[in-house]
Amino acid sequence: MGKKSRYGVILDAGSSGTRLHIYRWKNPEKALKSASQEDLRNLPKLVTSKKWTKKIRPGVSTFGGKPEDVGPEHLQSLIDHALRFIPADSIQDTPIFLMATAGMRLLPQLQQTALTREICSYLRRNTEFSLPDCNLHIQVIKGETEGLYGWIASNYLLGGFDHPDRHQHGKGHHTYGFLDMGGASAQIAFAPNATEAEKHADDLKLLRLRTLDGYPAEYKVFTTTWLGFGVNQARESYVQNLGDRYAETGSEFPDPCLPKGLRTTLRGDPVSKRNPIPGSPTLIGTGHFDECLQLTYPLLGKDMPCEDIPCLLNGQHVPAIDFDVNHFIGVSEYWHTTHGVFGGKDDEAYDFATYQQRVQDFCGRDWDQIKAKVGARKQDDVKIAQEACFKASWLINVLHEGIGVPRIGLEEVPAANVSKGALEHAKEKGFLSPFQPVNKIDGVEVSWTLGKMVLYAAGQIPPATRDDRYPVGFGSNVDGTPHDFQFAGSSWKPMGNQTSDDDDDWGLDAEDILDKAKVKSTTGFFAFVALLLLFLYFFRKRDRRMRLYSRVNSVLRRPRRPGHKGSSAGGLSGLATKLFGGGRRSSSGGAYERVMEEGQANQFELGDVESDDANEYSDSSDSSKSAASSSSRRLGLSSGLATPQVVDHHYHHGLASPTVSALDRSGLVVRTDSRERLALPPHLALSGVGRRSRAGSPTRMKSPLISPLQET
């Protein structure tokens, strides 16, 4: 039998360090055999765990001048950690990816190439992980790609890909926009409304996923990155502007973005008034937050020429955002800057008026007072408090002056066209806000690495048609497979008969192992019962049964010799009671095994697999959290834009190419399968998947992840 699970390893090589992530999902070959109608419409369900992550410092970019050391001094500890959790006989079928972001992008191209080649070579020499293509598995990804992966992860966790009727923002839109801000850059990714998507079709990315039934689901997404717009790079530009502004006034520069009385170097290192650094300019905090907002605004580059209207920041083109239907979540600095120093952990939504008031109150305090309050904590907390005012100023300007997010609490926002139930639920979570900062979704930290692995896992699902004309991946928004299409890096193939399901106990907790033990004992019990019934068949005549009963009963009731082991109580009737009593218990165990095989809620949804329910999710922001997949599903996959779906029954059976709508490239939904097809393809029918139709579609249950947001 094939294996129950597949695995993937991805290394997030950032500027400050590298973090290992391990993901697991159900083998599509097995998932199809037990799939329900609901399952067939879903993307693969991934599982991960807190203990399956590990982060080390510094980042791989620090090995730019000595690439030969990156393997033994940096990667090996991460490899060793991964090998602790992935079964040895699954290693060769487990892909490994290393994807570098901001830190590596800053290196010269020659150093980037030398490092990626050495990393691939080292992994091939020292591991047996699947690494067929160095260029695909080991690469420095663009900011746009990072944003797209983040968009996939966010919608996967929020349920935007599942049950669109439960995620209507208005005008048929059901996906969520994604905002990310780090130290060096910021990203945005969203599906524009129908009008903008048609107007700016050439600016969109085609994203193609594949659900368990083998049919493709396409989305049209805009994504871009703003280099230099991360908080650290923005701060450097701001300080340089201060220096230019006050260069002729002396060596002390007033800084309204620092708390009152705080003195630092231009690099941000605190200095004493009594012991200034000779020849080095000093920044002196004034705590005037309104002035801070005015001085950070020019950094947005709103006066830069815009060659392709409209533009948001620094003259870069972005289709117009309809905040009536485009609702964004913000991660990384968007979360830390709103829910860090300034509290708000119990806030249900981002409220501009409340947030700005908190910032002004904080930044107007004397620095000695602030330092005294955080002095008992780690030194990192002092650093965070020191930078908080500038970060808050930068975030407010980027969000409201740059991107144009309405100021909730001051500006009216049009009500979304949603059902009453959805509206009530959305209001509880701040779901209908144009912008909502998040760190976790239902206890799960949002990570772009999840988006990459969802794409890979979807590519392993066998296509519904024999000719795979619609592979999984993304590229330019053109018909078919564009020339720049980036494939998911996966394809379906059987894993062979290396092991049976029983060999997959490595990732189970104590309760799972106990369930397996029940299944095995149940199997033995039923085998015994079958033999007993066969035996009794041959003694079915009453006189034979009575003679057999009398003989056996007399033997069992015969007094035991001293020291004899075994029970003498009850005779045959007692034995039968024990057997059939145990049989009832075992029978329940057998039923439970069947439910687990068909549902596997705990094993195949993205969530923490540790046995301690009290610690199911970690509150630590320093480690990758388990991710939870939305187990609910949509009525039909779409890009979330207000358009009819493209449906072609012939295409579903591989008889003809799909009819291409003139609206396809406009970003309006392209769901290339029909939910009303009469029968599944033969290879799915052989897997035990029955026919389905509109009338036969099951009533979809509410997903446990339908909650759009879970503040922590």
What are its keywords?
712 residues, alpha+beta, Nucleotidyltransferase, domain 5, 9-stranded mixed beta sheet
How many domains, as an integer? Answer: 3
The beta-strand count equals 20
Low-pLDDT runs of 5+ residues are 412-431, 495-521, 559-605, 607-712
Terminal-residue CA separation: 42 Å
Overall 3D form = globular
The number of helical segments is 21
Q: Structural class of the secondary elements?
A: alpha+beta
Strand content: 5-15%
Helix content: 25-40%
Rg calculated over all Cα atoms: 30 Å
Largest sheet descriptor: 9 strands, mixed
Indicate the mean pLDDT. 74
Summary of the model, kept short:
35% of the residues lie in helices and 13% in strands. Helix 12 (352-363) packs across helix 14 (379-403). The chain is globular.
Description:
The chain has three domains: 1-228 and 314-330 and 413-508 and 608-712, no CATH class; 231-312 and 352-407, Exopolyphosphatase. Domain 2 (Nucleotidyltransferase, domain 5, 2-Layer Sandwich), CATH 3.30.420; 511-555 and 569-598. It contains 21 helices and 20 strands. The strands form four sheets. Strands 7, 8, 9, 10, 14, 15, 18, 19 and 20 form a nine-stranded mixed beta sheet that branches. Strand 1 and strand 2 form a beta hairpin. The longest helix has 29 residues, at 510-538.
